[in-house]
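[agent] plan:
  1. take the single chain provided in the ticket
  2. run structure prediction with default settings
  3. attach structure tokens to the ticket
  4. add a short note for the reviewer (M.T.)
[agent] executing step 1
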Amino acid sequence: MKNLKPAHPSLPPAYLAPDYLFIYGTLLTGTGDRQIQRHLQRYLQPVGAAVMAGRLYDLGAYPGMVCSTRDGEWVQGMLCTVHRPERGFNLLDRYEECESENISRGRYGRHRKIARLLTNNQDITCWVYLYQGSITGRPRIRHGDYRRFLGGNDAARGVRASTGVQRRA
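[agent] step 2 finished; step 3 output follows
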């Protein structure tokens, strides 16, 4: 047993841990298309409420998160483990319009970042889908909470209800 070596010695320990995903938008329960959520959430097991450094923007039918290094700029969401990551991330990448072959290209890119689990203030390395388009002219959701934004924004609820468009992590 003492001669065992990691399966992937070149990869940092975070890559050997379970696959975690930080969700902040329409994959959160009560914020998107229930049928799509049921299908995708077969691969997601909630761990707990979490925050991640970033800024949240209203893109119309869904939100977009971009990185931030400024103090106090947090996006609220949920940390999940991804079951069957090869299948789960393939479906999530398509849903997020992220190119699986090159996860940093497309409207959203899947990136490794740090989320803070609120139950114990533990920092966890996880995947997150970050918006890679222009945020020029897009309204910022300053409090960083998409559920709260939907709950207090009749116009946003109306757009989503009338178009039937529901997407984004």
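[agent] step 4 note for reviewer: Confidence is low (pLDDT under 50) at residues 1-16, 154-169.
[agent] ticket updated
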